[in-house]
Amino acid sequence: MEITDCIRETFGAIKRPTLNELRTALESLPLEKDLSALCGAVPGLLPYGRRVLCRTDEVEVIAIHIPAGSQTAIHDHGQSAGCARIIEGRLLNVWYELDRAGYPEPFMAAALTEGEYMYAPKGQIHQMRNEGEGRVVSLHVYSPPLSGTTSYRPYLEVLDFVI
Ligand SMILES: [Fe+2]
Question: Regarding the domain with residue range 3-147, which homologous superfamily does it belong to in the CATH classification?
């Protein structure tokens, strides 16, 4: 069975999962078997690759490929919560909170390597960075499926220098 079929089989029947149940489902995948379908997500318009592998009314499973030196936008996940497993490389996960003016400020960061997991609780704002020399591939699952996500620009990016 292809890994994409395993993913559809594993996540297709899940109803109202907790974050730990999402992690357990990720742990059950035979990811050593064939990763080519996951790593096929390649950068296009975004600075990173993103491929939806399974989407039901309950969950959405996405493979992310961040090339060396690239990063995602600072973003939230709308009403969703999720869990992710690092498949390859070293990922820096940076957490943000909004300042009084609504601009994101980093307050915590954690490096994760192959085989490690990270959680994205509802309301989390974060950015994933690849500061290494090889690619980062990770597998993410969210419940409910992603919708209404927001990306944030830091103050220094929107500041209008007039003096
Ligand atoms: Fe995210």
Answer: Jelly Rolls (2.60.120.10)
